[in-house]
Design goal:
about 375 residues; alpha+beta; FAD/NAD(P)-binding domain; D-Amino Acid Oxidase, Chain A, domain 2; eight-stranded mixed β-sheet; 19 strands; globular
């Protein structure tokens, strides 16, 4: 007989959300995490991430995003902590920009409230950006969007889960996950545990535990910087989160607004980063530290596009993107197993969706199905069974 109804590997964004849902269901649940939740070795750390709903990546994410935002709002009420800052999100590009076009299409399909802006309107409304010639630029602004505070979200989510009886074991490294008949054995550096079902939410380490997914996941190094605006910059407290589509052959550049609750931390400064990288990383080795060449490349574009914002670098760090071949997630039961469920390949845009992904995985594991429409993210689309 299995010791646990559900074991969750990883206490990052998705793992914590799955634990919360399992706790709500009253399941005997164990969470295994090798470090402190919110650690800086993976993808769930840092003071801020963008959340939005007019989604250019794929329109089928929109109902998942709405549920995720609602779950975070519930968590704010439950834990008495502010997790969202609705400063708005601005997406920009030229007349051929798929980011802008697909965002408009997703908003139209799902009735997401947005504003579409021409170049002249952008220049007047958002004076931080120099995107001339303005006649070739357009944008989408979603007012009911902004930034989410990831480390606070994870802490609040795990607190909610533990109050409902979920057991969390830290400093426990998972070595293997093996399905045998009606149970799954999770072997760790501190012993073995058995469960009826297992959720693997191990981020960059997923393919080490689920080898069948290895050829469909690659881990890349990302650089992010917090930059003090130049003296005289337009009221930075009014800055939205933003993304500029620079075309199909170069990574987009994006920024986070300063966090009004971030006084005394890097979060009080705007953050900037490229979205995407080709630098591969072994997560057990870790990413190389930020170097001068990283800062030079990032600030070169930032100064050209947002000159008043691109002052002195206050801090810079790396994080990891776990990329799938199509940039969409792998969520669901692994093709060669009946009792191992996975969330992987979140490809740099998964945090905002984590509450829904965790709910869907916990429900699928515990009840055999979920009402959340995640079938389009099934790992089956990449992995042939046989």
């Amino acid at each position: 007989m299995a010791e646990w109804d559900l074991i969750i590997v990883g206490a990052g964004a998705v793992g914590a959300a799955a634990a919360r849902r399992a706790g709500e269901a009253g399941a005997r649940t164990l969470v295994l995490e090798f470090a402190v939740p919110g650690h800086d070795k993976g993808s769930s750390h840092g003071p801020g991430r963008i959340f939005r709903h007019a989604y250019f990546e794929h329109p089928d994410y929109v109902p998942l995003l709405r549920h995720a935002t609602a779950r975070i709002e519930q968590l704010e009420d439950e834990e008495g902590v502010e997790l969202l800052h609705r400063c708005g999100v601005l997406l920009m590009g030229d007349e051929r920009s798929e980011v802008v076009t697909r965002s408009i299409d997703a908003a139209s399909r799902w009735n997401v409230e947005i504003e579409t802006l021409d170049g002249w309107s952008l220049s007047r409304r958002f004076p931080w950006f120099d995107l001339s010639p303005w006649r070739s630029v357009r944008g989408v602004f979603e007012r009911n969007a902004g930034l989410v505070r990831p480390e606070k979200v994870i802490a609040a989510t795990l607190a909610s889960a533990t109050r409902r009886g979920v057991v969390i074991r830290l400093a426990t490294r998972v070595l293997s996950v093996t399905e045998r008949g009606t149970t799954v054995t999770v072997t760790t550096d501190g012993g073995a545990f058995t469960a009826r079902q297992v959720v693997v939410a191990a981020g960059a380490w997923t393919s080490k535990l689920v080898p069948e997914l290895e050829r469909h996941l690659r881990v890349t190094r990302q650089v992010q910087a917090w930059v003090a605006p130049n003296a005289g910059a337009h009221a930075v407290s009014l800055l939205p989160c933003w993304l500029l589509d620079r075309g199909p052959d170069v990574p987009a550049i994006y920024g986070l607004a300063p966090d009004p609750l971030g006084t005394g931390t890097v979060a009080e400064f705007p953050k900037v980063a490229f979205h995407g990288s080709d630098i591969l990383v072994d997560p057990d080795v870790g990413a190389d530290p930020v170097g001068d060449e990283d800062i030079h490349a990032l600030l070169g574009v930032y100064r050209a596009k947002a000159p008043t914002l691109a002052g002195k670098v206050v801090s810079a760090s790396t994080c990891l993107y776990t990329m799938s071949p199509d940039g969409n997630f792998l969520v669901g039961r692994t093709p060669h197993h009946k009792r191992i469920h996975v969330a992987a390949g979140l490809s740099g845009h998964g945090f905002k969706l984590a509450p829904t992904l965790g709910d869907a995985l916990a429900e699928s594991a515990l009840f055999g199905k979920t009402g959340h429409p995640v079938d389009f993210l099934s790992p089956d689309r990449f992995v042939a069974v046989g």
